[in-house]
Amino acid sequence: MLDMRPDCERCGADLPAPRPGAFICSFECTFCAQCAEALDDLCPNCGGELMDRPTRTGDLLERFPASTERKFKG
């Protein structure tokens, strides 16, 4: 199951689980749309392709909450 990390690792932008606009690699490194575009859709950590992260809403989000651990190191 995806962690649904709450922020962009590059700029710290909030990326709520119910909203589109987050991009992830196969290791779940997470970036906002603007940073993914600036990175040419390649993860700077592993070199993997950044893809649209699916959303998680409603009952599923309540039963399986998104991660609250922020990854941005600022």
TrEMBL record:
Pfam families assigned to the protein according to its UniProt record, in alphabetical order: DUF1272 (PF06906)
InterPro entries: DUF1272 (IPR010696)
Protein name, per record: DUF1272 domain-containing protein
UniProt organism field: Alteriqipengyuania abyssalis
